[in-house]
Amino acid sequence: MGSLPATVPEFHFPDSSSKQTPIHNQSSIDETTLLNLFKSQQDYLNFFFNNLDIFQTLTFTRTLLDSSGTVFFSGVGKSGFVARKISQTLVSLGVPSGFLSPVDALHGDIGIITKRDVLVLFSKSGNTDELLRLVPCAKAKGAYLISVTSVEDNALARVCNMNVHLPLERELCPFNLAPVTSTAIQMIFGDTVAIALMGARNLTREEYACNHPAGRIGKSLIFKVTDVMKKQDELPVCKETDLIMDQLVELTSKGCGCLLVIDQDYHLIGTFTDGDLRRTLKASGEAIFKLTVGEMCNRNPRTISPDAMAVEAMKKMEAPPSPVQFLPVVDYENRVIGIVTLHGLVSAGL
């Protein structure tokens, strides 16, 4: 009853007749050898999936969810790297978490622990000396201790408040020594629990983005048009009565590839692009010297509000019937207050 259902999806590699990981002394690696290694690792991971006590894992997850303090993780060596990574994942999901070095903890860092906190100790064997020395100190601070181990009936499990057993058939290493499968299942376990906590805490896409402001997802959900648009002196503006040839400097110097045609109150009348200039020159020849911007401008351009999301501006630029390289930014009275360009959006990381 406690194991994961048999419907856990499995990866499919070519059949391997041997359950053991072979030792190869050859100086090169062939395709069959590599595929057999992946197949063996798959088998060992499936052993973990099929034998994990889901009810034990549920109790562990609920304990982290109900914690009123910080969830600290600790470990030594490779397990320490995994513990630190899982802690960082939780932090990115808005869960108060941190990594506690077992060595540094015994030299002052234990002071960060309180009776409201949970301390999760990752160890394959459950007999790691540094963690065993840490346990009585953390207990004295009143923290709730959970060991996550892969060896049955270990010393760490006996002294912690709770133990989670991660089933491990063997390491992929041909000597069954290098921690490559055990750390893989530790990572899978920790990150899956993290996503369970994410769902239980009802973390929204917007909240997640706020925790990742430098990433593309974060920028797409946080940045508004007003954050990325050009303003005031950067705007390539002109009047509709201006001659086209008199506005060539304005057209080319602002780096927008267009002119924003406005009236005396800055209401948008239309746009005139460098593409419009080429088409007008081809069609009119020398007559272009007498043409005004207002005669040749597009009086029905796409526009966008400063409060719109920047990603919406990009979608609007790419919309049919043909893509554009810029959008005038107008207020509710159709007054020009800025311009957003495709180059500007890309430069902002969108």
UniProtKB/TrEMBL annotation:
Region feature Disordered, mapped onto this chain: 1-24
Top-level taxon of the source organism: Eukaryota
SMART domains found in the cross-reference section: CBS (SM00116)
Any single GO BP term: carbohydrate derivative metabolic process
MF-aspect GO terms: carbohydrate derivative binding; isomerase activity
Pfam families reported for this sequence: CBS (PF00571), SIS (PF01380)
Residues of the signal peptide: none
Keywords per UniProt: CBS domain, Repeat
InterPro entries in UniProt: CBS_dom (IPR000644), CBS_dom_sf (IPR046342), KdsD/KpsF-type (IPR004800), SIS_dom (IPR001347), SIS_dom_sf (IPR046348), SIS_Kpsf (IPR035474)
The SIS domain, residue ranges: 61-203
Residue numbers marked as site, Catalytically relevant: 78, 130, 171, 212
Residue ranges of domain CBS in the record: 229-288, 297-350
Annotated Polar residues bias: 15-24
Similarity remark: Belongs to the SIS family. GutQ/KpsF subfamily.
Record protein name field: Arabinose 5-phosphate isomerase
Native source organism of the sequence: Cannabis sativa (Hemp)
Lineage, uppermost ranks: Eukaryota, Viridiplantae, Streptophyta, Embryophyta, Tracheophyta
